[in-house]
């Protein structure tokens, strides 16, 4: 039986008999501090989760007539490198415990990547929140409405597959528009009734593999009230975006109607982080706090009104857009955001030959800059400006 024909349950890492043992383990011009930004003025053209809106083509897994030889050669070279690294473990004298961690983590990621590959060009949002939220709680109803609204816009909802907020988002999205990465715990967490048994569910042993998937495979994050795990996920997601370890994406913290969970969180950020200079004022532009589901949905959809994706090409940051700024707007951008450049200025450009693997985005106009790689909040403010100013342009170019 070929790999592609195996049933998911026999192919998944949790079904393997060799399951590893548990190891023992500053910028003065920031315009909108405090986690709040004004709503866009005027109507904004929303993107509806069409397949060709996502930023990267899933790479093929096996050679066939559709796979260019040079791409398959590159993939084969990387696989051989993985094998060589594994061989070195014996020479290193790696312990059995260390080998088990590596073996299990590789199995989990390999299986999860295979699961996500058919959906790589489908817009997805991760939903974080407490597994303990009761079905009668207002937060549950709020998360259910959010999942439903995102599904109506063509977006899938990825959650930790547990109960509470995670189940609510899946109830709203429905089984077809839901994906899950469940964590295997001795308590509290089992797959919820919507995603249980679905081929779009992976059961993982390690939090670090699970958390990688939460940010790698999606195009936005919505975080509802929760406990230690939710706080961990919120702060780690913020850290990855702030440090450039994850491309910009919309982050929205959603509270129940009239609730102040995220208001108290923001007060802590203001008093203990911002006022003491532990973060920059523009860092609060990386997320939005709201109690309104429509605002939460708009925050995510509007982010992709003009902006499509970003990529580094020979050290230059390239922003792929659906509308090219005219000379007047480009001059304004350089005047207001030149601090983003380590050198030179922000310029318009076309697709580079090194972007050949994103062929479906080749026709999109681009902005290029020598990004200083430290001002993610300011970069987000630039994306917000582009989305506000160009959303209604008649010169929109779609990805193929």
List the helices and strands and how they pair.
Elements: H1 8-11, H2 69-92, H3 96-116, E1 124-128, H4 138-152, E2 156-159, H5 165-173, E3 178-183, E4 201-204, H6 207-216, E5 221-223, H7 228-242, E6 251-254, H8 261-274, E7 288-290, H9 293-303, E8 307-313, E9 316-321, H10 327-337, E10 341-349, E11 366-371, H11 376-390
Parallel strand pairs: 1-2, 1-5, 2-3, 3-4, 5-6, 6-7
Antiparallel strand pairs: 8-9, 9-11, 10-11
Helix pairs in contact: 4-5, 4-9
Any descriptors?
about 400 residues; alpha/beta; Rossmann fold; seven-stranded parallel beta sheet; four-stranded antiparallel beta sheet; 11 helices
The parts where pLDDT drops under 50 for at least 5 residues are 1-9, 16-34, 36-65
Structural domains: how many: 3
Query: H/E series, N to C?
Result: HHHEHEHEEHEHEHEHEEHEEH
Given this structure, which CATH class of the largest domain is correct? Alpha Beta
Which word captures the global form?
Answer: globular
**Which structural class do you get from the secondary structure elements?**
alpha/beta
CATH fold-type name of the largest domain: Rossmann fold
The number of distinct β-strands equals 11
């Amino acid at each position: 039986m070929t790999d592609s024909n195996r049933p998911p349950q026999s192919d998944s890492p949790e079904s393997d008999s060799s399951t590893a043992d548990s190891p023992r383990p500053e910028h003065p011009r920031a315009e909108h501090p405090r986690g709040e930004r004004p709503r866009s003025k005027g109507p904004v053209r929303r993107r509806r989760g069409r397949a060709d809106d996502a930023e990267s083509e899933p790479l093929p897994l096996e050679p066939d007539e559709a796979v260019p030889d040079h791409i398959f050669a590159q993939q084969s070279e990387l696989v051989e490198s993985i094998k060589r690294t594994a061989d070195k473990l014996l020479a290193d004298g790696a312990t059995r415990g260390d080998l088990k961690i590596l073996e299990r983590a590789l199995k989990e990621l390999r299986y999860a990547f295979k699961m996500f590959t058919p959906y790589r060009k489908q817009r997805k949002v991760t939903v974080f929140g407490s597994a303990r939220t009761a079905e009668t709680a207002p937060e549950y109803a709020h998360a259910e409405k959010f999942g439903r609204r995102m599904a109506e816009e063509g977006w899938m909802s990825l959650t930790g597959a547990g109960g509470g907020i995670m189940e609510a988002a899946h109830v709203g999205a429905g089984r077809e528009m839901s994906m899950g990465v469940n964590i295997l715990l001795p308590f509290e967490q089992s797959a919820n009734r919507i995603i249980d048994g679905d081929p779009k569910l992976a059961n993982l042993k390690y939090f670090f593999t699970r958390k990688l998937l939460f940010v790698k495979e999606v195009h936005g994050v919505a975080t509802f009230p929760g406990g230690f795990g939710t706080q961990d996920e919120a702060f780690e997601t913020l850290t990855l975006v702030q440090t450039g370890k994850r491309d910009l994406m919309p982050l929205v913290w959603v509270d129940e109607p009239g609730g102040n969970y995220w208001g108290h969180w923001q007060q802590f950020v203001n008093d203990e982080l911002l006022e003491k200079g532990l973060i920059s004022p523009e860092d609060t532009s990386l997320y939005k706090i709201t109690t309104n589901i429509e605002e939460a949905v708009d925050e995510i959809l509007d982010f992709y009104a003009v902006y499509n994706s970003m990529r580094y090409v020979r050290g230059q940051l390239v922003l792929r857009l659906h509308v090219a700024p005219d000379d007047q707007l480009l001059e304004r951008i350089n005047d207001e955001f030149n601090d983003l450049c380590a050198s030179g200025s922000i310029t318009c450009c076309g697709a580079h030959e090194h972007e050949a693997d994103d062929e479906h985005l080749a026709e999109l106009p681009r902005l290029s800059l020598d990004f200083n790689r430290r001002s993610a909040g300011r970069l987000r403010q630039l994306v917000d400006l582009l989305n506000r100013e160009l959303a209604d342009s008649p010169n929109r170019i779609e990805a193929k």
